[in-house]
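ARCHIVE RECORD
Type: protein–small molecule complex
Small molecule: 1,3-dihydroxyacetonephosphate
Source of inputs: curated submission
Record status: active
Notes field left blank by submitter.
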Amino acid sequence: MMVANWKMNKTRDEALAFIYAINESLPSCDDVNTVICAPSILLRDLVKRQGDNLKIGAQNMYFEEFGAFTGEISPVMLQTTGVEYVIVGHSERRNLFGETDDMINRKVLSALKHNLKPILCVGESLDQRELGITSSVIRKQLEANLKDVSKDDILNVVIAYEPIWAIGTGKTASASDAETECKNIREAIKELYNAAIADEIKILYGGSMKPSNAKELVSMPNIDGGLVGGASLQPDSFLELVKACL
Ligand code: 13P
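STRUCTURE (tokenized, with ligand):
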């Protein structure tokens, strides 16, 4: 699975030009599940280009369905645009916009209730890594963010391991470090759910993934793909990332 997180980038014209540039060359979703998570204002236009080789996702949503929440977008609104995925709990949302584990849990539950697949981001800060508490930080996030998510629903959740110190910094976790944490995540899912679910759930790596390191990362047994910011913004680079999954 290869997921672009465009963050707050691209006008409508730029986004459509990007889709035209890659569409012909994308493999079928049976081979690589390719997803573009775009700014909300572009979703309606991009969903029209959704097909058997490309799915569209949102980057955030609020957990309530309607109401006095100025500036927010609800799961009902997302559902009516036809998007399939929504990123939840990105570290930029946690750190810049004050999202707590409890809010993220409510978002995960609300997305699932509205047939949206949450891409749940977890990961440690540099301080936490240096203190040697990476695995316990991630375990706590998983327990809090997946609270009350049932066995029936959990396979509609994609988990993305994104070490905060690797996001947008050019510093990638080494393939073996990324593998270690993704393996720990799978182990946690096994304990929280069961072994069959742990085998099947998709776990992505994100943090300065680019064409030159993607193949090594996605070749790791517990890394099922990538969640990519900067290197997903140019069509050629994104296509290379998708093809690395083949
Ligand atoms: P970069 O690929 O730019 O490091 O961003 C990663 C990310 O935050 C994806 O969600």
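CURATOR ANNOTATION: The longest helix spans residues 175-192.
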